[in-house]
Fold:
Amino acid sequence: MVDIKSMTPEELAVWLKELGEPAFRAKQIFKWLYRGAASFEEMTDLPRALRQKLEEESLLAPPEIARKQMSKLDGTVKYLWELADGSCVESVLMRYRHGNTVCISCQVGCRMGCAFCASTIAGKVRDLTPAEMLDQVLFTQIDSGVPVSNIVLMGIGEPLDNFDTVMRFLTLVNNPDGLNIGMRHISLSTCGLVNEIDKLAQYELQLTLSVSLHAPDDETRSRIMPVNRSVGVEKLLETCRRYFEKTGRRISYEYAMIDGVNDADWQADLLARRLKGAPAHVNLIPLNEVEESPLRPSRRVAAFQKRLEGHGITVTVRRKLGGDIDASCGQLRRKAMKEEPL
Ligand code: SAH
Structure:
């Protein structure tokens, strides 16, 4: 079986040719797929015989909405999707002044083991396919009726741990006949896989790379992020500098503020010192409490921000959206897993 929705129009044309079909069918089919067609039967401008052939030779299985939560406060919508194999992943639609943004997942679960994160508690089940990533954007748009202009890869999973799929996904959403979302409207967040950051740099994409730093010292970072135990902060930041030199894109560093763990003045000072030398932007994130974790939100966000700014660092504090729903990543999936059956 061919995963038809993970194909580019060019690949689709080649495949159709092998089936003895004219190339122009590729564009027709591509358009139907991006209109959210749930079956080939719906593609009424294709000959019946071709529809049947597609049905036999390829996969088309849009996700189902297992849960949906809408924030009354700010219009944030959170979706829990059930995929063809019964796995669930989340997406969140957020409305900002600069555009509607959808935050999507790239894996079912995660194997990175960060201490503060709900997505990793039960480990990784599997990688998503490009089609499953794409469908999150498409069906969020279709279900909500809200046109999506920005995508953030900050949902469940580690994008650089599913590298090839993510690259293909980026190509697909970029396509003018598809979603036509430009790289400058896409952010990719990583816990800091250095080899893959180097690999990504070679593509010189105009997307925004966000690095989840969360601590400037190895002792703290290794405690809350196991990924740091093999590659420390210094090597990670060197890799980030290389990334900037290659792509010219300023890196955004995420820093979830955790009470008594990473919110001391000395950590702000060390962070500022370590970020010197390349343009950087620090995004402080008020910690979302996760039921299974003893970590609590810091009460020093403003003081930490001020201290960093005193060192000349550009700092923003992430606005909390969807405070009345489980908008923090991985929480809705956890809840649904515990509540069986869905
Ligand atoms: N694996 C990628 C992307 C997914 S997580 C990464 O690590 O960057 C997206 C962001 O949310 C990361 O910065 C992550 O560290 C942060 N995050 C996870 N759990 C959180 C929580 N409970 N509170 C605040 N931020 C959290």
The first helix runs from residue 9 to 18. The pocket of S-adenosyl-L-homocysteine is lined by residues 114, 116-117, 154, 158, 189-191, 212, 254, 256, 285, 287-288, 290, 328-329 (CB under 6 Å). The chain has a mean pLDDT of 94.
